[in-house]
Specification:
Helices cover 0% and strands 48% of the residues.
């Protein structure tokens, strides 16, 4: 269940851990609605707890399902190109079964930013079978924002 190396380092190869990224960009994100980010490529999925190809009942791809009850360190880095400065807000949310964790900006910079990076890292309490995925939402404006392949969603069971 765990390995102790000759230098004393302990690894737990059965511990849930994952990192996913988009297989392709998502262009022209719809305005004034929740849009799920499609992370179609697994960097790694130790424990096979992330589904990138089979949408869950809500149509979400790249949904992490907690295999056991515990505290999970969950993180995202999402790069968005061409955010419309006329939008009332732009946010990226880590949506879990228990609550949402949100990174939000008011993009009124006087011009459309060429790119913006949203990031968040949180220790989230999850019960077995709880889920987590990433969603974006933007207020009024033009549907011109693009999610790039530089984005990442990751997590692991911390305790």
């Amino acid at each position: 269940r765990f390995t102790i190396g000759t230098g004393g380092a302990v690894t737990m190869p059965n511990q849930p851990a994952f990192m996913v990224r988009p297989a392709s960009g998502q262009d022209d994100i719809a305005m004034a609605t929740d849009v799920n980010i499609t992370f179609g490529t697994e960097q790694f999925d130790q424990g096979a707890d992330v589904s990138v190809t089979n949408p869950n009942s809500d149509g979400n791809t790249a949904t992490f399902t907690a295999p056991v009850t515990g505290k999970y360190q969950l993180s995202f880095v999402v790069r968005v190109n061409n955010i419309d400065s006329a939008a009332s807000h732009f946010l990226v949310a880590l949506v879990t079964s228990n609550r949402d964790y949100i990174s939000r900006i008011d993009p009124d910079f006087g011009q459309d930013p060429a790119s913006w990076v949203f990031s968040l890292s949180i220790l989230a309490e999850m019960e077995a079978s709880d889920t987590a995925f990433i969603r974006v939402n933007s207020g009024a404006g033009t549907a011109q924002s693009d999610i790039t392949t530089e984005s990442k969603f990751s997590g692991f069971l911390a305790c």
